[in-house]
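thought: user wants a sequence for this fold. calling inverse folding tool.
action: design(structure=
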């Protein structure tokens, strides 16, 4: 995609409670170089996942609920949004998931 690499903090918009979620999506798309439709899509590539996480965080800062975020971001279930944010923020949770995945192989 030829996107410039940004840190997670740089990707995240400084959301204000009254901001339009579409404006936040547009800003994150611009900063990350990932098209809006791709952020809202099903890709799990690292670049897209980072942009999507930035969107989730910014929308939470805007006081959107997990179900609202899920609906906005391609009709995902609220538990998906919660799991992604927890995975990104909690190393112990990531390790627990790795162990659980390894048990299935």
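)
observation: tool returned 105 residues.
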């Amino acid at each position: 995609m030829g996107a410039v690499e940004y840190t997670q903090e740089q990707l995240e918009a400084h959301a204000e409670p009254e901001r339009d979620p579409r404006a936040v999506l547009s800003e994150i798309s611009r900063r990350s170089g990932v098209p809006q439709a791709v952020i809202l899509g099903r890709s799990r590539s690292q670049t897209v996942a980072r942009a999507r996480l930035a969107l989730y965080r910014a929308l939470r800062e805007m006081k959107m609920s997990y179900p609202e975020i899920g609906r906005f971001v391609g009709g995902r279930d609220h538990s998906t949004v919660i799991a992604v944010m927890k995975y990104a923020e909690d190393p112990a949770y990531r390790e627990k998931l790795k162990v659980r995945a390894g048990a299935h192989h």
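thought: summarizing for user.
answer: Here is the designed sequence. The helical segments are 8-11, 21-32, 36-39, 46-61, 66-72, 78-89, 91-103.
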